[in-house]
Amino acid sequence: MIFRVTPFLSTLNRPISSRSFFRTMTSVAEFKQAPHKLLVIPGPIEVADEVLYANAHPSMSHVSPDFIPVFGDCLRMTREVVLSTEGQPFLISGSGTLGWDQVAANLIQPGENALVLHSGYFGDSFTECLETYGAKVDQIKAEIGAAVSQEAIESALKSKKYRLLTFTHVDTSTGVLSDAKAIAETVKRVSPETLVILDGVCSVASEELRMDAWGIDVVLTASQKGLGVPPGLSILVASLRAIKVFESRTAPVGSYYASWKKWLPIMKAYESGKTAYFATPPVNLIYAYHQSLSTITKKAPSLEERFELHRAASKQIKDTAAALGLKQLALDPAFAANGMTALYFPEGVSAGDVLPKLGAKGIIAAGGLHAEIKDKYFRLGHMGITAVDGQRGDIQTVTTALKEVFAAK
Q1: φ, ψ for residue 329 (rounded to 5)?
Q2: How many CB atoms lie within 10 A of CB 156?
Q3: Are 107 and 259 in contact (CB under 8 A)?
Q4: Which of 379, 60, 99 is nearest to 234 (CA)?
Q5: Alpha carbon distance 219, 306 (integer Å)
Q6: Which has fewest Cβ within 10 Å: 64, 120, 225, 358?
């Protein structure tokens, strides 16, 4: 079974309010989330019981002596997840989109050049954000289902000086995985002064990512995907090189809320065991994030094993789809994400023919997002506990449903 009802609740002869429920629970072992359909969109994803339990922590002061070390631990464990020893984490209330604003407000000045690698919808969005702050943006646009080639990147970098280059590690609209290591190597060889910015909203904790070893200057992400936490936390790690670029800027930071002038002292204070105030952090969400990070960094499976488990889950989904005659958006397996899959509908089939049937089988999938082909495909997420916790049986549930829905197509 996918969904479980706690024995504690099943013994009650009358309804119990959520407030009474959380007050009555004495340990996470007793807490089981309510029955629900299996959420396999590319984020938000399924969240573990212990993470939701942590999110239900009693309301706390953000300057409480009990909360300060929790926030500090989250900063340190965030480094571990992106495999960085000295990067500066920023944990700020907001969505992954706030990461774009942090980059655009703090690392590039009006009139400077930015190069955006476009592998789907989110390349356009990052471009718009950078232009909002006055950057001059060039795009290299890959065909749908492909990533930008290293040759195209090298040619662009030789054409002019770029303050930074951005790419979406996994573009959620296409399921395309860009080669972060190769991109960083090309930038370092051709234009070493250019900052490498990785949008990892749909990749952190589900795709292999080695920030320090690969020479990534910024990794930005969000809580609701591979990190397995409810939405609402913008997470970013900046290299020391990126921090130096920020500190040497001559133009004022173009944002109030996203300014590292405001946030850097906050992060440094909490990590040193002290407190400082700019804006109230999402205390309960930080507790949930702490629980998830503790599982990822300190328990089995290890982070390296998680990468492999995501690859295995991805293969199972993609092999099933291929056997059913479903074509991926990704044109080459090398471009295919491990935390999600984007699949074209068969000829003559639409989202209205498929998504409700999956829903009737207890599965929530996502429709298309890329504007040029929005009605021609659908998307499945398989990251976090869905990929890592085999006892849940989520991957088998999804593959069984795909077979039942598409076998007659």
Answers
A1: -65, -40
A2: 19
A3: no
A4: 99
A5: 19
A6: 64
DSSP code for 200: -
- Which CATH class for the 68-297 domain? alpha beta
Q: Which of 349, 368, 359 is nearest to 406 (CA)?
A: 349
What's at 407, amino acid-wise? Answer: A
Does residue 364 contact residue 40 with C-beta atoms inside 8 Å? yes
What pLDDT is stored for residue 407 in this prediction?
A: 87
Number of helices (H), then strands (E), in the chain: 16, 14
What is the amino acid identity at position 71? F
Can you tell me the distance from the alpha carbon of 245 to that of 112, in angstroms, rounded to the nearest whole number?
13
Joined together, the tokens standing for residue 397 give 């549930």
218-222 and 233-238: which strand pairing? antiparallel
DSSP three-state, residue 282 = coil
Q: Which residues of the chain have pLDDT under 70?
A: 1-26, 408-409
Q: What residue type is assigned to position 172 of the chain?
A: T
From the list 204, 263, 242, 199, the residue with the least C-alpha distance to 77 is 204
**In the prediction, which pLDDT does 26 show?**
57
DSSP secondary structure, 63-84, as one string: T-TTTHHHHHHHHHHHHHHTT-
- 375-384 pLDDT per residue, tens: 999 999 999 9
Q: Which residues pair with 234 in a beta bridge?
A: 92, 222
Residue 299 has a CB neighbour count (10 Å cut-off) of 8
CA neighbor of 126 nearest in space, from 79, 173, 190: 173
Q: Which residues define the annotated binding site for substrate?
A: 379
Cβ atoms of 229 and 296 closer than 8 Å? no
Amino acid (one-letter) located at 170:
V
Provide the pLDDT for residue 29. Answer: 80
**Cis previous bond, 44, omega within 30:** yes
